[in-house]
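Before relying on records like the one below, remember that each one covers exactly one chain. Contacts with other chains, cofactors or solvent are not represented anywhere in the record.
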Amino acid sequence: MWNTLLVAASLVAGDPVDLQAADLALPAGDSGLWPDLVSLGGERVALSWIRSDGESTSLSCSILDADGWSEPAAIAAGSDWFVNWADTPILGASRDGTLSATWLQRNGESTYAYGVRHARSSDADSGEAWSSPEWLHTDRSASEHGFVSLAPLPTSGYAAVWLDGRNTLEGGAMALYTRTLAADGALGAERALDERVCDCCQTAAVALDDGRLVVAYRDRSREEVRDIAVVRGVPGRPESWSAPKVVHADRWTTPGCPVNGPALASHGEHVALVWFTMGAFESPAVQFALSTDGGATFGMPRRVDDGDPHGNVDVVWSEALGLCVSWLERVEDGYEWRVRALGSELDAGDSVTLGRVDQPRRTGFLRMAAAGSSIVAAWTDPERGVRVARVRSR
C-alpha cells in the first residue's frame, strides 16, 4: 500500500527541496493579531487580521500581488466579539471571485457563549465592499460555536464546517456541523456530521473537483480517546455522507481538549492530512498521511517534525514546491515556527525557521497559502504583531 502511495505522490510533487524564507513588508502594522491567508491564484494571496483595543475589535484584509499590498479594507468591527488565540477569524476565496470571512460574536453572558458571523465581498481584487454580517448557523443558544473551515466548492460558494455546542447546555457533547454558503450569501440546510467531537480543536475541510467534501477533525470517544477522524460527502446530498472514520489509531487519551486540530490540502484525488499527536510515539509528533482516493483511505502516517513539536500545524500544496508542512517546534529557549517541503517519494527536505516565540498561546497558529513559485506564511509575533514571510526553494 505504501509503495503505491509513493508512486501516486510522484504525479503531483517533485524532488524534495530545501527552503529559504524572507520577511515581507505587511499592511497590518504592529498591532495586528491572528492572521489568516488564502490563495487567489497565481502569485496573489489575501491576508486578514484583527485589531483589538480591549473595547472594540476590527477585522481587515489586504491583497498581495506583484505590486505589493493593496490598501487595507475593513471587513467588520464590533464591541461584542469573542477574541481568542485558538479560534480566530477565517478568510475564504471561492472560485467565482467571492471573498468570505467569519469571526466570533458573543450571544450570551457566559464566557463561552458566542456564535459565528460571516460576511462576503464580490471584489477579490481589492477586498472592499463587504456585506452586512449574518449568522452562519441557525442555533442561537448561549453556547460555543466556532473553529470554522471554509472550503471553496468547484464552481461557486463554499462548504462551511464548524464546531457547534447547541447540545452542551443539556449535558450533551460538542458536535461537528456543515452547510453551504452560496456566492449571494444564501445558506443551505445544516447537517450534523459527528455528534461527539473534541471541544476546541480546529477543523479542516477541502472540496474535491467533483464536489465531494473531505472534513478532518479531532474526534472524542466516550473513553476520551481523541484521535483524528475524517468524514466525506457531497453538500446537499444527505445520503452521500460517510460515517466518521479514525485515520490512524494513535490512541491519544486525554481528559481535556489539546487545542490542536488537523490540516488538509488537496490536489485532484490526492488529499494530504497533517496532525499533532501525543499517542502514537513516546514523544509528541507531527504526523503526515496521504490519500490517493479522495480521502476514502489514507496510507500509514509518517513523522515530519524535527523531534520535539508542539503542533499547531498547517499544510499547503504548491505546484512549485510540492507539499509544504508547518508546525511549532520546541527549542531550548522557546518555540520556532518551521516549514518543510516533502518530495516525490515523501522524502523531507531540510526545515526552515520563520520565527521564534516564547510560548504557544501568544502566537496562535501560522497560516500558509500558495503563491505561484512560492508560498506565503503569516503568524502572530507576541512582540511585533502580524509577521509575513515568503518561502521559496533555496
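The chain is about 0% helix and 45% strand.
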